[in-house]
Design goal:
The protein is mainly beta and 116 residues long. The chain is built from one helix and seven strands.
Length: 116
């Protein structure tokens, strides 16, 4: 997804993205939603970093799943660590919290990444 990246220091950078969605279900009302994403990244080494991020916007659910997800706004925030094992491997634990109209979401992930 295209966005704006600002490298405002040798070890700090920020990104911003704006998402615009448009749904047109058959035989139903179309809807348009806007959401945004911002993050702040600290690069400890070339393969190790810490990132905090925040997002907000419209849930923009179609009518088929509207009662399950909702049609209001959401907010999300999280933390992602990239722990470099060497120059090519990294372990990436992350946590994200999202607040929706009908529920709250806590997501935890653990990834193993290899860079060629």
């Amino acid at each position: 997804m295209p966005g704006v990246t600002w490298n405002w220091h040798d070890i700090f950078s920020s990104r911003a993205r704006l998402y615009i969605t448009h749904n047109t279900p058959k035989n139903d009302v179309s809807n348009t939603g806007v959401s945004a994403y911002f993050d702040l990244v600290y690069m400890a080494t070339a393969n190790s970093s810490a990132k905090i991020f925040y997002s907000f916007g419209d849930e923009n659910a179609t009518t088929l799943v509207q009662d399950l997800i909702g049609d209001k706004n959401f907010q999300g925030a999280g933390l992602e660590l990239r722990l470099g094992l060497n120059e090519t491997w990294a372990i990436i634990p992350s946590y994200r919290f999202e607040r929706h109209n009908l529920f709250d979401l806590h997501a935890v992930a653990l990834a193993l990444n290899h860079t060629f």
